[in-house]
Specification:
The protein is mainly alpha-helical and about 220 residues long. The chain is built from nine helices and no strands. It starts with 10 loop residues before the first helix and ends in a 6-residue tail after the last helix.
Length: about 220
Amino acid sequence: MLSPSHSPSDPTVSTKTLARSSGGRASQKGQQTKLAIVEAALGLATQIGLEGLSIGVLAEVMQMSKSGVFAHFGSREELQISVIREYFSRFEQEVFYPALSEPRGLPRVRALFANWMKRVTIELQSGCIFISGAVEFDDRPGTVRDALATSVQTWLNAMYRAVVLAKEQGHVHPDANAQQMVFEIHGLILALHYEARFLKTPGSIARANQGFENILVRFGAQPP
């Protein structure tokens, strides 16, 4: 209840309420603008790489001033890291989380790989930020490289946990080397990008899928 000194007609109450409302709308609009910039930056990064991103390039694409873009990120590195985080978030939504609905063990490992392959077939046209970023920043220590490496390692850790669960469920040989399995599965994806995207080798996707099945069988899984 308002006190007598703050009646509904009190102008100070209306002013404060209006200020809070205006501040909330401005904050929401600012967040929407930042998301739009990240979206545009992500699209550019798949074409020209993270190294090609800059405040100036994004300002031109977004038809904003450089200072306007800079206000949302503060530096080129923060812009690049924001793109990496958004890319990884989408990767999780498309590849990782849907696989969690599968039973523990080999079904989940298969789902992770199948979802990964779906994303790869799209990225054969647009490019993979993790792979191109690794080439650009492999010998350049810093926050951008750290963000890339952490994202890739987080994903590989998820696949590793799925393989370990497959061992525990008896779906692969109890002595199977989980790290080796993940290494070889990851190698398939890297080879597929090189063969299909760079060399344009026909049949690369089918060979990658067959390679995955070969790995599972070699480590004790039953063929489908």
